[in-house]
UniProtKB/TrEMBL annotation:
Residues 9-148 form the Class II Histidinyl-tRNA synthetase (HisRS)-like catalytic core domain. The keyword Ligase applies. This is His-tRNA synthetase. GO terms for molecular function: histidine-tRNA ligase activity; RNA binding. Keywords: Aminoacyl-tRNA synthetase, Ligase. One of its GO terms (cellular component) is cytosol. GO terms for biological process: histidyl-tRNA aminoacylation; mitochondrial translation. Gene3D superfamilies: Bira Bifunctional Protein, Domain 2 (3.30.930.10). It comes from the Eukaryota. Signal peptide: none annotated. Coiled coil: none annotated. SUPFAM superfamilies: Class II aaRS and biotin synthetases (SSF55681). Transmembrane segments: none annotated.
Amino acid sequence: GQYDPMVPDAECLRVVTEILDSLDIGKYVLKINHRSLLDGMFEACGVPADKFRTTCSTVDKLDKSPWEEVRTEMINEKGITPEAADRIGEYVRLNGGTELTEKLLQDEKLSKTKAAVEGLKGIQLLLQYCELYGIKDKILFDLSLARGL
C-alpha cells in the first residue's frame, strides 16, 4: 500500500514493544539503523560501491567482536584501505537518539553525501513517530547495526 515514510516502520516497532512488554522480559532496547545511511557512510569514508555489502557484513560483527578485529577483517579480508576503515570506525561506534541524528547531519563528510542525509532524515522521522507512540525510551539508533534493518 501507500504510506507516509517511516509510518509502517514505527508501527512495527510499536507492535514489537507491545509484545515484549506483555511477555514481561524486563528491560530491553530495539536497535535501529537505515540502509541509506550505511551506504552514505561507506561512500563518505571512501569505500568503493562494490564493497558496501561485504563491509556491512563485517561491521555487523561489532556486537560480538571488538573494533580492532572488525577493522583487521575489513582491511585484510575485504580489501578496505586502513584509512577508510578508520573513518568507518569513527561512526560505527556511535549510538543514541535524535540528538545523534542532528549531530551527524552537521558532520562535514556525511552532510555532503545524499544517501547519508536521506538515511539520517529517515531515522529522525522514525524517532519522532516513536516518541508519539511513547516507545522512544526503548529505541536506540545504532550505527553498527548492519543487518535486520
